Amino acid sequence: MAFSSALCIFSLLALVQAQSESQHPKIQLRLAGDKVKHYEGRLEVFYNNEWGTICDDDFSIEAAHVACRELGFLGAVAWSPSAKFGQGEGRIWLDNVHCTGGEKSLAECPSNGFGVSDCRHSEDVGVVCNQKRIPGHRFTNTMNNNVETIEERVEEIRIRPISSHLKRLPISEGFVEIKERGKWRQICDEHWTPLNSRVVCGMYGFPGEKKYSNKSTMNLIPLKKDTFSALVSKRNGVWNDHHANFFRLILQQPLVRLRGGANIGEGRVEVLKNGVWGTVCDDNWNLRAATVVCRELGFGSAKEALTGAKLGQGMGPVHMNEVDCSGFEKSLTDCYFNNDALGCSHEEDAAVRCNIPAMGFQKRIRLSGGRNPYEGRVEVLTEKNGSLVWGTVCSENWGMMEAMVVCRQLGLGFASNAFQETWYWAGDASADNVVMSGVRCSGTEMSLPHCLHHGKHINCPRGGGRFAAGVSCSDMAPDLVLNAQLVEQTTYLEDRPMYALQCALEENCLSSTAKKNDHSTYRRLLRFSSQIHNVGQSDFRPKLGHHAWTWHECHRHYHSIEVFTHYDLLSLNGTKVAEGHKASFCLEDTQCDEGIQKRYVCANFGEQGITVGCWDTYRHDIDCQWIDITDVKPGDYILQVVINPNYDVAESDYTNNFMKCKCRYDGYRIWTYQCLTGGSRSSDMDEYPGMSNQLHFR
How far apart are CA 442 and CA 453, in angstroms? Predict the structure, then answer.
């Protein structure tokens, strides 16, 4: 009876708490005003569809902590009264705010109530937040407008195609119409200028405009063909055959690139300087600068200018700081900027989301039977006997690269899993038949039909139905990067007797000739340490759960990923002369950045993974942390390390998963130098075809 009473009391408390939480109004915060860094500024609140400020009366560091955490930072460093970051405008929403510091939102802190204040804007409060962001923090926009987007939403403007272009995608020319009071209305062409056309074209993903026609009472805007010819005409067949021409402009403009984004036209901004790729600090980063980047890459205007490494952290140098653009520059490098990035870290990497043309790809694919819109059996729309029908995709060789393309095509972010059986998802029975087989993707395609596949000649022995391909998607992904400098600093040779290598032999960590040796012989091992950082937006976790891990009796540990890294020694022409591999028997947080807690520890059969902002270190002196070079002759070679080589786990960027070093082996010693992470230079592959005779010693 006492138990029942306690249960009732607990349930009642939970109900009261839930009701209390639901009664708190939903707000959104931003930092505005005269500021230099993205983590400081005047604190403003969006409430009742209006931005307003907060009075400094009774404000405290505890309230600042709550505000900064709500904004995605680890906490507050300080707060400032008396409008230090400039006076705001409009309403003063909050006054006499009293927080304990444990609240999840400023809305939970006691105050006079929203809009009840006797303050003036000369008392607007400001905060300085901790520069470090909460790992994996998700910014949830609960308001009608996003503080980082243009105020007018694209959905309220449309280009209605002329009758002769009704079936063309994308819509690149037509009459401009604006939605007002639920009805689409025309725009008079009086005082209409090319700048207006440029804005509309930019909102629809096109980098430029062409002369418009004023022969109608409505504005006709054709796309500037010489700027983006791949999208103007369906006759050129670009979108029917392959999307590669879409990137033609990008390849001609190698000074800027985007990395870490889930969809085309978004990512962390990186610029090329002296052959080395680096990032852009987010100080003063805004939509004008972001729009220059988007148009430079062949897209339209910027939809969002993102700060605080919201699309992941880069590696290497920070090349640009305090970028100041007019919005009409041809390249980001034409804008004014500060070369001195002192004080900027990769936690301040700038990013963009560009407006891109609506190609209609999403309408030709769907996920069916899943528990939520982010998962399900993959079903594609295809033409059969003169009509369009839905069907499944053959799951043979279906993997993460194919799943990535599906999630991108649907606009659902990154793939988190690729499934070769989908019997647990009851899809549309009328779509059970396989309509696509032999799908092989590189992972960068914009839609599944752009990947290699069998076409009309379907070959799928397993059939569809329960064996159809499936995916699950996520808006965030991890990103693993190897510390190349540590590899270079820790390489050395060891001659180890065979009697001490029996476990390594059992786990195939030695070359094939080792099986013929007796216990009295030695193997020559090229040893080095590897430190693997997770600089993405979500934790790196093994694909398999505890129940599917493999137990290895000799070393007496589980392998959560059977092949986590490949270690190869290559000749100068790329031929493999020796190899090794490393299973993830202990994937854990060895160390983390300041303010980040370790989540994964291997001891006692614990959870394995690498937290965002942490790294896992495999020391040079543990088993299998080597390449067996016993049979290698003296000469010049390339040491190559590849993380997650089979793409078992999804990442936001696979281009930085490999590292290469130059090596010279004289039969007794080895020199390793010029270690580079993939994607860090203008052309990584060009660094290695030949090698000079001059050694660069540390």
Answer: 12
